């Protein structure tokens, strides 16, 4: 017996301190989410005593009655083409074996070998299936296949193990054989998708051709948590599972064997995993105040004069603000100019003497300013006493200043000689 934690890389840690590590390989294209049927009819019709249509009203109760009656060795949920896309369980299905006899039960879901068919949604705040074996001579052989188990969440329950399936052997023996199924987006304290407790009995979990994706455990085993059981996994895929320890599988006093399976992007908490692992965080308090899915300190969104951002250490800090008025031209944001918040749009005239200039408006767009210069024909009282629209001297206005003995008026200036002798005399 040994304890193992498997995360993004597959690792077994044995009591003899021997290590076996297998590299991850990418998930193939057939790992995409399955297609679903569109809703067509809500009529529930049974084809035989042990076969139930997915559209049967009160499906949970009908299935539970068949399980409790112990008259069917195989119970199948079927869906006609174009039946439904998702099937909601009203209550958790409970398989409790209390007699000293052996029992074989097979549950067959409504999806085909390529996982095409309706998803089975867990009841609100609960899991899909509970399994309990509690007789010392009991033997339960439970086979589950052709299901998509999705969105079980037992985080708030008194027994928060196994977001989708929780199995316990208080006494006796359990063989749990799951094949051609998927466990998607389930949550728990331990064992995001599956939890198997076999410490008080004899238990085995066999997984073949099973997808476990995006399941989360607050503490141990993002996809699977097992104690005191034999676990064999073949031809299965684990992707995007999360846990504080054992991102995909956590085994305590368990014998775990994995063959020909794919592990990809299963992670324990780290800065950049898009989960804020701080006070009240799902996976515990790792000192993070934020986590935006990367280890990059971003700037504020353009246009904000201030903001808080998540830095490379997942701490909240003041971000660098870029906006029209910050005196930096942000060409990538469409700015043509930026003279600062006090200057943008407050000046409409070019400096005196310039024949042309560009100024900046309140939206950081350039515009041609009004001009004032000597020779433009307008008299600028701050800088000129006349302006006759030319640069000639001897005509009363030279360099935009009135020449001695002349008087100038209007704009452009018209000047007259006021210092000449009376015509025909020396006076």
Q: Secondary structure elements and their pairing?
A:
Elements lengths: L1 E5 L3 E4 L5 E4 L28 E3 L5 H11 L4 E5 L7 E3 L4 E5 L4 E7 L10 E3 L7 E17 L2 E3 L14 E20 L2 E4 L3 E4 L4 E12 L2 E5 L3 E4 L2 E5 L2 E3 L2 E4 L3 E11 L2 E3 L43 E3 L5 E3 L39 E3 L5 E3 L28 E2 L2 E2 L3 E4 L4 E4 L10
Parallel strand pairs: 4-5, 5-8, 6-9, 7-10, 8-10, 9-11, 10-12, 11-12, 12-14, 12-15, 13-16, 14-17, 15-18, 15-19, 16-20, 17-21, 18-21, 19-22
Antiparallel strand pairs: 1-21, 2-3, 23-24, 25-26, 27-28, 29-30
Alpha plus pi helix count? 1
Taking the sheet with the most strands, its summary is: 6 strands, parallel, barrel
Record the strand order, biggest sheet.
Answer: 12-14-17-21-18-15
How many β-strand runs?
30
Mean pLDDT: 84
Beta percentage is: 35-45%
Counting helices, strands and paired strands, the structural category is mainly beta
Shape: rod-shaped
Oligomer: single chain
Uncertain residue segments: 6-47
Radius of gyration: 40 Å
Q: What is the distance, rounded to the nearest whole angstrom, between the alpha carbons of the first and last residues?
A: 133 Å
The helical percent reads under 10%
Give a structural overview.
The chain has 427 residues and is an all-beta fold. It has one helix spanning 59-69; strands at residues 2-6, 10-13, 19-22, 51-53, 74-78, 86-88, 93-97, 102-108, 119-121, 129-145, 148-150, 165-184, 187-190, 194-197, 202-213, 216-220, 224-227, 230-234, 237-239, 242-245, 249-259, 262-264, 308-310, 316-318, 358-360, 366-368, 397-398, 401-402, 406-409, 414-417. It has one helix and 30 strands. It has a six-stranded parallel beta barrel with strand order 12-14-17-21-18-15.
């Amino acid at each position: 017996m040994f304890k193992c934690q498997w995360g993004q890389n597959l690792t077994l840690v044995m009591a003899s301190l021997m290590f076996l590590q297998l590299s991850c390989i990418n998930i193939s294209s057939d790992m995409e989410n399955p297609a679903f049927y569109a809703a067509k009819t809500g009529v529930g019709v049974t084809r035989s005593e042990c076969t139930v249509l997915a559209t049967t009203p009160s499906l949970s109760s009908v299935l539970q009655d068949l399980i409790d009656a112990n008259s069917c060795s195989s119970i199948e949920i079927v869906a006609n083409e174009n039946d439904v896309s998702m099937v909601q369980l009203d209550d958790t299905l409970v398989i409790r074996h209390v007699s000293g006899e052996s029992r074989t039960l097979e549950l067959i879901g409504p999806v085909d070998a390529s996982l095409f068919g309706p998803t089975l949604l867990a009841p609100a705040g609960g899991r899909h299936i509970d399994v309990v074996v509690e007789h010392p001579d009991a033997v339960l052989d439970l086979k589950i296949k052709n299901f998509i188990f999705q969105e079980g969440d037992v985080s708030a329950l008194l027994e928060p193990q196994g977001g989708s399936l929780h199995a316990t052997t208080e006494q006796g023996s359990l063989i749990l054989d799951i094949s051609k199924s998927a466990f998607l987006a389930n949550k728990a304290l331990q064992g995001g998708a599956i939890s198997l407790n076999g410490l008080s009995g004899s238990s085995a979990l066999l997984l073949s051709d099973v997808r476990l994706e995006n399941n989360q455990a607050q503490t141990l085993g993002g996809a699977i948590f097992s104690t005191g059981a034999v676990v064999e996994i073949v031809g299965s895929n684990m992707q995007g599972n999360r846990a504080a320890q054992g991102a995909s599988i956590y085994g305590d006093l368990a014998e775990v064997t994995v063959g020909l399976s794919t592990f990809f992007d299963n992670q324990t908490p780290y800065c950049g995993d898009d989960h804020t692992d701080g006070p009240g965080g799902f996976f515990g308090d790792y000192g993070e105040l934020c986590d935006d899915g990367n280890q990059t300190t971003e700037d504020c969104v353009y246009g904000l004069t201030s903001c808080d951002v998540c830095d490379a250490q997942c701490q909240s800090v003041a971000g660098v603000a870029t906006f029209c008025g910050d005196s930096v031209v942000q060409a990538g944001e469409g700015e043509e100019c930026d003279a600062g918040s006090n200057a943008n749009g407050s000046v409409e005239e070019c400096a005196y003497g310039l024949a042309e200039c560009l100024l900046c408006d309140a939206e950081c767009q350039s515009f041609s300013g009004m001009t004032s210069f000597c020779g433009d024909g307008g008299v600028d009282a701050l800088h000129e006493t006349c302006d006759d629209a030319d640069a000639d001297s001897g005509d009363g206005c030279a360099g935009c200043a009135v020449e001695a003995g002349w008087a100038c008026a209007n704009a452009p200036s018209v000047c007259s000689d006021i210092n000449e002798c009376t015509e025909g005399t020396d006076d």
